[in-house]
Amino acid sequence: MFDPKLKEALGRVQKPGRYTGGEPGSVYKEKEKMDVRFAFCFPDTYEVGMSFLGEKILYELLNSHENWWCERAFMPWLDMKAEMERLHLPLYTMESKDPLTDFDAVGFTLQYELSYTNILAMLDLAGIPFYAKDRDESWPLIVAGGPCACNSEPIADFFDVIQLGEGENQLPGICTEIEKAKKEGGVSKKELLRRIAKIPGVYIPAFYDVTYHEDGTVKAITPNEPGIPAVITKAIIKNLNDFAPPTNFVVPMVGAIQDRASVEVLRGCVRGCRFCQAGFLYRPMRQRDADLLNRAAKDLCANTGYEELSLSSLSTSDHSQLEELLDDLNEWAPEEHVSLSLPSLRMDNFSQSLIEKTNKVRKSGLTFAAEAGTQRLRDVINKNVTWDEIEKTCSLAFANGYSSVKLYFMMGLPTETMEDIEGIAETAQKVVDLYYSIPHAKGRGVQVTISCACFVPKPHTPFQFVPMDTEETLRAKQKHLLESVRSRKIKVNYHDSKTSFLEGVFAKGDRRLAPVILEAYKRGCYFDGWEECFKYDTWMQTFADLGVDPKFYCQRPIGLDEVTPWAHMDYGVTHEYLVREYNKALAAQTTQPCNRACHGCGANHLLGGPCFDYSKNLV
Known about the structure:
33% of the residues lie in helices and 14% in strands. By secondary structure, it is an alpha/beta fold. The strands form six sheets. Strands 2-1-3-4-5-6 form a six-stranded mixed sheet. A four-stranded parallel sheet has the order 15-16-17-18. It has a three-stranded parallel sheet with strand order 10-13-14, with helices on one face. The longest helix is centred in the last third of the chain and has 20 residues, at 418-437.
């Protein structure tokens, strides 16, 4: 039965379905019989959080344990946040409606740097102290994981436990230690954290001290507890087939941004694009077998009723059994009116066969990532795509009835010039001209959309050493791009350089940013990733008032031998390899995909052997 306060709040907000729970696929258990209760928190709206595949994986995994209960919580939108504060209604989970303080552990996923203030807002709404040092045994453990954990230092002081790498083994391990400690009784928080620290890939920020040079750079990051490793190596699943994809999703009541069945076909990527943090964090590439994927996909669609199935990964078309998988899926998907989508297609292996096998039910849009407008710059970033491949791909699409293509680019890439910006417009124009050169396409209009993001250098990539373009430079490049486009058939979208700047600050920041983030939250900064909520001037004033220069973190080059804030976090790829790739980038030299030849990045030690069998033809 709903709390009367909650019922009142729901009657006053725009989308009450975000907060009611009760969706098909939700898991309900008798809480009195549970040994461990875990609250999975997504620090953004329900619609964004319900699109996140990682939550679905861990929700099913934890709830498969009879005596554990994983529930969900999301950041309430502005109207609901105001109502909860007015009515003193604490942040609660969707399933039991219990406040977060009733849980043994509260876990946040770190997907995006601009969600950091939302984490503080959720802790605040729950009545949980912000800093880990202010929480004793009476409070839930506050846990984090996800890609931004690779440099979680700006928010490390707020967390008890941070998981580096893949959580399918780590999170059950943490819950097991919590269960043991509860049954023993009287285990101190520090002792529990010592036990959890023994789980591979687990980082306990309180067990490390950071010192700085006079110039503000990091001097050293050292353990302050016996038995704690100087470097934490990420956790990894060596064989993805050991973890079948989830076959039961919670089906959202309010339409999620990506409201479809989704199956992760592989993890990692072989391409080695030097700008792509995910491509380095999730090395080496591992794939699931086609028959396992087909069974999971069929069960998932049957259990949820979804009529669209996405084959998810960083580069789905690199799956070695993709054609076989599509054949298997097409034996049942058309009969069930399920359409197939491949969201991560590469221009260099797009084919007639892929078009035919993914368009049996309905035709989905085509999006390709060209990333840079000139071949020189594509070589710098190791985007091994040529104009000939772009031309071949678009010709194939147009010949099959497509009349719109979306092309992703970035601006602000290392060594970029205004000629490279002009190249973006020229590439789009060549695609428009290509469309009208195909005889049977004449008489129908074409639409080419350019989506241009501001490049943010990220940790654990070869470009971690480069400074980010200034806002003035990015604005000048955006203006030049608009002036370079001369066709109404080309639409240009680009990102706000101000939000990208803050993302860059947090991406390469250190622990001295925690007070800034907290103070900015107290001054009204949250939902920073939402244009209508972003308070850039408040952020800049907060930095100034606290004496912190944000440009220090993202707009200066990092020395190749400098100790970074993330130097104690090992994601498998060696520092030496990143330096080699950085130098090759400056020389515009490319590196082949790692399934064609091993380039010695170091990630193979995570598997205990070679990532690929190079005796086979994997080209």
